Amino acid sequence: MKKKGRRKSGFRLIHLIILLIVFWIGKTLISQSIMIKDLNSKRIKEEDEITLLKEEIEELSEEIENKDSLTFVEKIAREDLRMVRPREIIYIDKNKDKSLFNFFRK
Questions:
Q1: Is residue 7 assigned to a domain?
Q2: Contact criterion met (CB below 8 Å) for 66 and 72
Q3: Are 99 and 90 in contact (CB under 8 A)?
Q4: 39 touches 46 (CB < 8 A)
């Protein structure tokens, strides 16, 4: 007598395990690609910020070198302290910058 093997033609447990493994691998690959894309964009932003900070450091080091010159003193007096030269007239556009107008109004 021949032994008949127990073969089911339907869905088996091994098929379910293989399907779950394929699903897990696909999910992992997709999440990693999203993470790589996010990290690359963050890296680009950080590199841009580093470039801006290096430029600012260069400007500040130039200001430190020129701190005793008269042009630097005049620049600080005009920009930070809002000082003007004698007989110099400043025109203020009321519509453009009201904070500057309020500064001189006080």
A1: no
A2: yes
A3: no
A4: no
Q: How far apart are CA 56 and CA 63, in angstroms?
A: 10
- The answer to whether residues 47 and 82 belong to one domain is no
Residue 102 and residue 86 share a domain: yes
Q: pTM above the 0.85 mark?
A: no
Q: What is the pLDDT of residues 32-70, one digit of tens each?
A: 999 999 999 999 999 999 999 999 999 999 888 888 888
CA distance 71 to 93: 27
Q: Are residues 55 and 71 in the same domain?
A: no
- For residue 51, the enclosing domain spans 12-65
90 phi, psi to nearest 5 deg: -110, 130
- Is residue 1 predicted with pLDDT exceeding 80? no
Q: Are residues 19 and 59 in the same domain?
A: yes
